Structures
1.
Amino acid sequence: MAEGLKRRETPLVDRLVVIGPGLIGSSILRAARATGLAHTLVTTDAHSGVRERARELSLADEVPDTSAEAVAGADIVILCVPVGAIASVVAEIADHLKPGAIVSDVGSVKGCVVEKAGPLLPKSVHLVPAHPVAGTEYSGPDSGFATLFVNRWSIITPPEGADAEAIAKIAALWETIGANVEFMSAHHHDRVLAITSHVPHLIAYNIVGTAADLEEITQSEVIKFSAGGFRDFTRIASSDPTMWRDVFLNNKDAVLEMLGRFNEDIAALARAIRWSDGDALFELFTRTRAIRRNIIELGQETAEPDFGRKKG
Ligand code: NAP
């Protein structure tokens, strides 16, 4: 078995349901299959083409046509749909869940899941949201792979008063498929991810858009000389448009707060360049270099440019 995945002697649960077998959902299913996480794997998707592909790839044992059918008898349901679709899927499945079922998700924003989806669920069902901090710029059922979460963090954001046993099960699920688990409030998660993920994506979308709009620089020059830093931005800026639109619409406060701070700091950098303040530039660039070294030391990156982003 692939390194980092933990084969279980007995399944954690009987029925595990993944709604939305895209990059993240199909990776969970592949890892669940490899580790024996559940006795029966079930998946479905709003799109018939995705359901068909899930059947062709044998991602699950059962691929029913609707979410309502899929969740019947489920022990754990993981919603792997875009953040903006989570509440509507919860509304579809709420009446079909058995008492004691656990509903989780993998959305990149957490406050909105607790606020919008929580009230739609019956009291007998446990909501334990999570966010695996792992991914690539690809989407769809073909893009997933079993080792996507190995040595990555999965942040669990249990609402106040959440059931301890349900939280432990979701933690065990992520640990089985190789992730390290961290707990925090949904609010804190959204502020941390705003600066570590959401604002960087916004900057990448912006810089690639600006380069594309600059009339005196041709498209062929942009491509030809992209190795000068731009290429790394284009990778990030090719990430799924639906997913990222939903992230920004659902994490407005934290993103706008971090963007305000970013704007102030970039104005200071512009000032340093205008006034030839080389010391200020050198001091910042030295500090940022050390941050990358720390990330590499913590095993979250290597010096190779495509660490953790290739199919394993
Ligand atoms: P993806 O590859 O596009 O997969 C999402 C799947 O959900 C698609 O098959 C989509 O079907 C389906 N879907 C959309 N609306 C649905 C609905 N109402 N009911 C049922 N299925 C529906 O996206 P992903 O990258 O796996 O992202 C899924 C979630 O993971 C998002 O919430 C995202 O924030 C989170 N996440 C992503 C990453 C990353 O790096 N990509 C990392 C961590 C967390 P269609 O194709 O027909 O729309």
Note: The longest strand covers residues 13-19.
2.
Amino acid sequence: MTTQQKQPGILKAVRGTRDLLPPETALWNRVEAVAREVFGRYGFGEIRTPLFEVTELFARGVGEETDIVSKEMYTWEDRARAQSEKAQSLTLRPENTAGVVRSYIEHKLGERGDLQKLFYIGPQFRRERPQRGRYRQFWQIGCEVLGPQSSGSESPVRDAEVLEMLATLLDELGVRGWRLELNSVGSSDDRKRYNVALREALEPVKAQMCEDNQRRAETNPLRVLDSKEAADQEIINALPKIADFLDDSSREHFAAVRAALDACGVAYTVNPRLVRGLDYYTRTTFEFTVPDGSGLGTQNALLGGGRYDGLSEMLGGPKAPGIGFAIGEDRLILVLQEQEGSKSVDAPHPEWMWAKKLDAYIAPMGVERNAAALALARELRQAGLSVEVGDGTFRLKKSFEAADKAARHIVILGEDEVASGTATVKTFASGEQAKVEREKLIEYLRKPD
Ligand code: HAM
């Protein structure tokens, strides 16, 4: 076959990316609206940072040796377009904490003196192996709390408040069965000492481990603790625990976080292996997980976060201790959809989970009534009702079927109705049918079923 005869191929979304379509996007919007509302109640303001940044930001902030930076980033050499420009290496953001802290430094937000409480909702990019709950473009809903030490940014109260807010958010979203796993990875000095101990403990056993873990044992032994490699679990469980390497101040900090959580009644489990896959973490780290069978396949981390007291300095900024988290929004949606469909749980989801029907479907009888139908739709929509308009070429049966799918009422507009200033309205839920005067129509359609 010559190239000319070839049928053009169908173009598809890139592997690991996907289209979000109605009605599912309505659920995304509602989740985001609940998140915005909750964040507002806790005094957070929105930050929007660029989708791409200089590569060095992530190399320095997230860490060269992490999986994210060493193998998952979308990086390209951006050529100079003019003499005034320099070629530079750019990267699609794989996460947003480094970008937020870059922005905090660039805009001297620390000089405002108070605590900065910022939230974001947006896409992130990682070249991971796609599977259920794991995509190459995915969405995060995140928060960062940071500021100079004098703003109280280092206080354990901040950690507990962020965790309590997450518990509230997940409850208000109707997520069931979530669990908070908590750990402290200590200060960077604690981690240095722990790293030495880990290296020593790994030395005699690393040859028995998988290739990835052998490499990690050399380059970044902490990462061995994240490993899901089944055959290596026994060795990993026997390794020294970070808790035994915390200095007094890290230990006291962690105890105060736990005491504040206890006081608020937020339940948690301490997981000594929770070190998280990014290098900027200090002290508190956490993940919220959902039980197996919640729709995430093998991924059970709904969100993750922690404290990053040295990140600002790593990026050349002033001291600005901070703590934050990012929820995987794709995963959150999968969980809500799965739990909504599950018959085994009796607590109902909040009402907003359910797709809402339109208030009315206007069915013009004959094309001569199309214009009048559109004019009526304009009037009803201006009054705040949600309305769809059919077409005069449709047979009555087709109009009824379309209306039943989309709306609570069908409003039939025939020659008689137009002439007498009325409409025939059928309410699907009750089966009731009535002739309604035009002046009373809005009120009639507003009535709950
Ligand atoms: P992370 O653990 O890398 O942390 O990501 C947070 C959440 O994003 C994960 O728990 C997961 O739900 C979701 N996520 C990560 N990768 C994917 C993926 N490929 N597909 C779908 N969802 C994914 C961070 O990104 C930190 N910046 C969080 C943070 C904020 N720490 C402090 N402040």
Note: The pocket of histidyl-adenosine monophosphate is lined by residues 95-97, 126, 128, 133-135, 138, 140, 142, 144, 277-278, 301-306, 308, 324-326, 328, 330-331 (CB under 6 Å).
